[in-house]
Structure formats: structure tokens, C-alpha cells
Amino acid sequence: MRLLMINPNMTDAMTGSMAQVARDLVGDAAEIVPLTATQGFPYISSRAEAQIAGAHVLEMIADHHESVDAVIIAAFGDPGLVAARDLFNLPVVGMAEAAILTAAMLGDRFSVVTFSPHMARWYTDCVRQTGLEARFTGVRCPKVAPASVDTVANDLRSDLIDLVEQATASDGADVVILGGAPLAGLAREISDDASGLLIDPIAAATAQAMSLVRLAPAYGRRVARPAAKPSKGLPAALATIIAGECP
């Protein structure tokens, strides 16, 4: 089984840390194929940036979909997720949706803890899109955004643990999602120091991608695929998919 892990953020170090989390989870059961965006932003932190990144995600999937069994979009806002599912005949899993659905299976109420206030409204939108907002206790985050995301998991470690405690003790969350690609691996590291059940979104997405491959849905029977049409100015691989020539 080969899982394509696309990082829409232009940060190789972030890709490497997420790929390691995924590899630790799958062991010998799957191959993780990491891919970092070559255009866009060092880190996606708004809905506008996610819209731009989503188009790049579709291009990257189009270039590689024939050689993999599933795709993981490794950015918490899931840029391009819904569109990718419309276009490609294989499982496409997003970190945010996977983490939220997993949280709903582990407890009655869940929260998101992240490292920047800039993402709070956008992450709330991610929950709303799953239809699970009634079980969501909110986003907890520092009041000030960090100057850099490169070492945020270490720099804000104690603050993030405190935010998890607030999410469980004050907000009533049973499960806490550590949202944001820079926090990959942190859930396992702080699980003995924080209350509640902690979810690493890239681990959740990887586990769900493997399950969907094994379920082997019949994509040829889909009823929601967009009508085929010609396009102009798109990369050749993506234009071919949109023209209805996806195998």
C-alpha cells in the first residue's frame, strides 16, 4: 500500500516530521510517499491562503495519483479536499476532517488546541463542515501568534499543555485535537502530561487512509463526479483529469 502525503506548505522540515509520524504508525503495512509544495506559502494560516493552496493540491495529486493507493492532505485546514474527492478515483483524506471524525468516535465532546489565534475561526469552520459542531467545545490558542512556526511545538510546549488542561477542565472536552502541521508528533510526546485523549491529526489521517484503501470502494459507481469539460492554461495532468480521463 502506498500513501501519498501532500504538504501544501512550502516547508520540507514540516513534511519530514509529519512523514515520520505516519511511518511510525504504519510500520511495514504501508509506504509513505511525502511531497512538499513548490509554490504557495511557507505556512497556510488563513482561508484565503487555503483556497490558493487547494489548487496546488489538485495539481500535485494529478501528477501522482496513478502510482499511489490513497492521498493524505497534510495541512489542518484540508485545502482542496472536497474538490479532490470529486475528481480522483481513490481515497483522499484531510488531516482536520480525519482528526474531527476520530475525536467523535473517542468521546462525547472535543476541542482543538493550536498555536496561533489566526487559525481559530478557520478551524471552527472545519468542524462546522463535518456537521459535528454540537459536540465541539471550541478552539483554545495563545493570544499572540508566534514569530516563527519552525520550533513552535518545543517553544510553546508548556503553554499548549496548559491549553489542553483548559479545554478539558473548563470547556468539558473529552478529546483534544492538536491542530496544525507544526504540532505533528506532539500528542504522543505530551500524552502523560495533559488530561483527556489527545489526537495527532496526521496519525488520524494516515490510519483512516489505510482503512479506506482496505474497504476498496467502487469508485467507478460514483454519482457525484463533475461533468467532463475542456480547460485552458491548466497543467496537462490536471487538465486531463478534468476532461474526464481519470482512470
Question: How would you describe this structure to a colleague?
Answer:
The protein is α/β, with parallel strands linked by helices and 247 residues long. It has two domains: 2-96 and 204-242, Rossmann fold (3-Layer(aba) Sandwich), CATH 3.40.50.12500; 106-200, Rossmann fold. 43% of the residues lie in helices and 17% in strands. The protein has helices at 12-26, 47-64, 81-87, 95-106, 120-130, 152-155, 157-169, 186-189, 201-215, 236-242; strands at 2-9, 31-41, 70-73, 92-94, 110-113, 136-140, 175-178, 197-199. The strands form two sheets. A four-stranded parallel β-sheet has the order 2-1-3-4, with helices on both faces. Strands 6-5-7-8 form a four-stranded parallel β-sheet, sandwiched between helices. Helix 1 crosses helix 9, helix 4 crosses helix 5 and helix 4 (95-106) crosses helix 9 (201-215). The two termini are 18 Å apart. The model has no long low-confidence stretch (mean pLDDT 92).
Q: Care to count the β-strands?
A: 8
CATH class of the largest domain: Alpha Beta
How would you sum up the global shape?
A: globular
Chain-averaged pLDDT: 92
- What CATH calls the topology of the largest domain is Rossmann fold
Distance between the termini: 18 Å
In what range is the share of β-strand residues? 15-25%
The major sheet is characterized as:
4 strands, parallel
The CATH architecture term of the largest domain is: 3-Layer(aba) Sandwich
Strand order of the biggest β-sheet: 2-1-3-4
In DSSP terms (H or I, runs of 4 or more residues), the helix count works out at 10
